[in-house]
Amino acid sequence: MLIKVCGMREPGNIEQVAAISGVDLVGLIFYEHSPRYVDSADTALSVASLTTVKVVGVFVNAAPEVVAAKCMDYRLDYIQLHGIETPEYLISLREQLSDWVKIIKAFPIQNAEDLKRVSGYEGLCDYFLFDTKTSGYGGSGEAFDWGILQQYKGFTEFLLSGGIAPDSLEALSRFQHKLCAGVDLNSRFETAPGIKNIPLLKDFIQQLKQNKR
pLDDT exceeding 90 applies to what percent of the chain? Predict the structure, then answer.
C-alpha cells in the first residue's frame, strides 16, 4: 500500500516525514490559493536531496509549460492534477514531461454519477485519486462515502483521499477494492497548515500497515 503525505511545505518537516517508515510519496502544492502553497528555493533544495521517497507536485488548471518547469525546478517524480484538466490536456502535458514522471489525476466524488467522467482518462494516468467533492479543489478535511467506489469498474489503480484522519483506521480496514493502491494523508495530521504532526503520522502509518497485511 502506497502512503502519500501531501501538503508539505517546510524543509525540516519534509525531512522528518520522509524519514517515517512506510511513507512512499510526499506532496507539494503549487496552487496559489491553497494555505499549503509552496514557492521556496529552500523547499526545492530540500526535496532534491530526498532519496527514500518520491515527490509529487499538485497543480490546479496550470498551463502545461508551468507544470513542466516546476517539475524541473523541484525534481518531481509525480504530477497530480486536481482541477478540471481534460484528457487532451493530459496528452499535451505528457509530451512535455520526462518519461519517468508519473501522472495522478484527482476526481471529486459525491455520488456514483461523478465516477462516469473517469472513463475518459483511462490509459492517460498512472493513478487516479478519489477525493471529497467540495466547492473548491480538495483540502476540505472531510471524507466521502467510500462505498461509492465499489461502482468503479475501470482498470487504473487509485489512491483514496479526503478527510482520512487518525480515527479512520477501522474504516480503512473495512474498505476493500482490488484497485486501491494507497491512501493520501493531509490536513487531519497537521498542527498547522503545511506542518505535519510526526508522532501522529508514525503511529497511524504503523497501525495501517499492520491492519493491511
Answer: 88
